[in-house]
Amino acid sequence: QVCAQLCRRPCYCPWVPPRCPRGSPLVLDGCGCCRICARRLGEPCDFLNVCDQSQGLVCDYSSAPAGTGGTCNFEDDEEGCEVNGRVYRDGEVFQPSCKIQCHCLDGGFNCIPLCQEDVRLPTPDCPFPRRVEIPGKCCPEWICEAQDQHLLRDARAVSPLLRHPCQEWGTEWSACSATCGLGFATRVSNQNRYCRLETQRRLCMARPCPALPAAFPAVS
């Protein structure tokens, strides 16, 4: 009877398919009738509004009152993390951009930069160092600009790589700056091509922030 009430035949679907948010594909509803936006992790779901099965999500009714909808969750309570509308499995390593690499772990994620964050101080052979974006390259690079001629040179041409191993020195990563949601951790290390002390940062998330409580109902 419930299926007969929800699944009308013939189908009554909007002429133009809905525009879905990023990371939410168009799928058939629970009746196999109309194309709808798949629900993502943590979003409400029911018989008609189905979850994104391509991300391993199912409609979880375990914590919902009888007769109400559920919430999209991983099958078998498998934990994962959602970044920019895409869900990653626990233990998965991914790159949101070419500049950082992240690791999904226990519902949160840690990210480390893939670009050097060294600080170049002025020197006699490079009095005006600048860091610029190079076309075709992901990471910015240091260049030297002469004050009188305004000539740009690659910093590596005047500062060759170290020919001897650098004795490692550094501090431990600090705690995440945010107790929930996206934050960052820092450390000081000399592990770079110039063996200079630099402050390094990486993104981190200890746990997702809880959903905001619903507004209190008006008192009549």
Describe the structure.
There is one protein chain. The protein is mostly beta strands and 220 residues long. It folds into 4 domains: 1-76, Omega-AgatoxinV; 81-113, Complement Module, domain 1; 118-145, no CATH class; 169-207, TSP-1 type 1 repeat (Single Sheet), CATH 2.20.100.10. The chain has 2 helices and 15 strands. It has helices spanning 2-6, 155-158, and strands at residues 26-28, 35-37, 44-45, 57-60, 70-74, 80-83, 86-89, 93-97, 100-105, 108-113, 129-132, 141-145, 152-154, 183-189, 198-205. A 5-stranded antiparallel sheet has the order 8-9-10-15-14, with no helix packed on it. A hairpin with an 8-residue loop joins strand 14 (183-189) and strand 15 (198-205). The radius of gyration is 26 Å and the shape is elongated. 13% of the residues are buried.
